[in-house]
Every structure is written in C-alpha cells, then in structure tokens.
Amino acid sequence: MKILVCISKTPDTTAKIAFTDNNTKFDVNGVQWIINPYDEWYALVKAIELKEADPSTVIHLVNAGGADADPIIRKALALGGDEAIRVNTDSHDSFYIASQLAEVAKQGSYDLIFTGKETIDYNGSSIGGMIAELMDLPYVSLATKFELSGTKATVTREIEGGEEVCEVELPVVVSAQKGMAEARIPNMRGIMAARTKPLKVVEPVAADSLTTVAGFGLPPAKAGVKLVDAENVDELVRLLHEEAKAI
User: Fold this and answer.
1) 142-150 long-range contacts, CB within 8 A, separation 24+
2) How far is the C-alpha of 28 from the C-alpha of 6, rounded, in Å?
C-alpha cells in the first residue's frame, strides 16, 4: 500500500505574530517553524502505525513550499516517512496548493491520502476536500479513528453532537484530527536516516489562485482581570450582570 501524507510548515504556537507591508504579509522574522501539528501528530503518525502493522506499506510526504520548508520535511522523514516531494511554490491560496498536491497524488497512484484537518495558521480546513474533488475520490473529514481491513477503511469522524462511522473503499482522502493517533518524537536512528532519504523538488503545475490577502489583523488585547473580595457578593453580581455579559 502507498500512503501520501500532506504536511505544511506553520509557526510554532508560542510565536509572536506580527505583519508587514501594510498588514498584508506575515512577518517571518524570528519565527520558529514546525510541522503543522494536525499533519504531524495525527495524519503522519497514523500512516506510521499502518506501516508498522504492514511493513510493505510505503509512506511518501508532500509539501508545497520553498526551500525553507526542507527542515520540517526532514523532521517528518525522521519520524517515519520513506521519501518526500516538495512542490517549489510560495503561494498560500488553498485551491492553488490543493491543485499542486493533487497533481503529485495523481502521479504517485496512492491508495490513501492523509491531511491534517486544518493548519494552525490559516485554519481553512479546505485542502483535503479540494484534493478529493480534484482527484474524484471519496473524502472523509475530521477523522478521529481509522481502521483498515484489506481495501476497506472504517473511519470514525466527529459530527455535531456525536460521531459518525463511515465505511469506504480505497483510494480515499482523509483529514485527521485529535484521537487519530498519539504524537511521537523522532529518535536518533530516525534523525540520522532522514539525512539520506530522498527529498525530490518539483516545479508547480499551472493552476489558478482564487484568493488574495486583503489584510491581516490581530484580535483585541485581552482585558485585565478583576479580583473581587469573596465577601463582596453584591459587587460580584453587579460585574456579572453589567460587564461580563457585555464581553
């Protein structure tokens, strides 16, 4: 079986966010970059678990980005990917990126395509569905469990107020979220092996960009905390009615 895992480079969750060029571009100065957690902890690790159950499984990684994404790709290889493909582009348009990833997937004839449910910077949650549409494949989103029996997958996904269990024949595109797998860290053997694993760079195919960034903005600063004496119940009630209600 061949599995393709889509990975994205995102800022560390503790990074201080700022913008440049009249708030139209993300300021990358001083930012620590990581593998998008949904891609790493759930999509990639689930692929690794499937390979552990069936050692004949091959795991390929794909990323759409510039050369500055290579370190996070190498980390993903250290975790357990067999080889990687980077589409050499700096676009952040979802349709454009999905088109590049779908083209790689078509060329590789994969049985299973995993994505994270979303990236933690743009939170678009759209790439997986677009890839599936572009490839005319079934798509299961927000997956929390994935079991494979032959060519049939049983996927549990979150829905409003509960869970839904789907059965689908491979090939399929699945977006993964918390519950799919347990996060891992690369060991020394994996780190050393990743240095020599193939990382192929390909040029992007022609595709439309359907969106442009009009501007970014930071959320309002959090208000200060008000402490109320435990004996002053009337003041606490007043604050809850007049101020907390307005937040």
Assistant:
1) 142/117, 142/175, 142/177, 143/174, 143/175, 143/176, 143/177, 143/180, 144/177, 144/178, 144/179, 144/180, 145/179, 145/180, 146/46, 146/174, 146/176, 146/180, 148/50, 148/53
2) 22
- Write down all domains in the chain, each with its CATH number in brackets: 2-218 (3.40.50.620)
pTM for the whole thing?
A: 0.87
133 contacts 173 by C-beta, under 8 angstroms: no
pLDDT tens-digit series, residues 184-211: 888 888 999 999 999 999 999 999 999 9
* Alpha-carbon span 95 to 129, nearest angstrom: 10
Sign of CA dihedral 125, 57, 169, 157: negative
- Following CA atoms 89, 94, 96, 98 in sequence, which dihedral angle do they give, to the nearest 10 degrees? 90
Q: What are the structure tokens assigned to 214, written together?
A: 């009009």
Place of tokens 């004839």: 109
Strands 9-11, 139-149: pairing is unpaired
Question: E strands, 75-178, where?
Answer: 83-88, 112-116, 139-149, 152-159, 162-169, 172-176
Average pLDDT over residues 79-102: 95
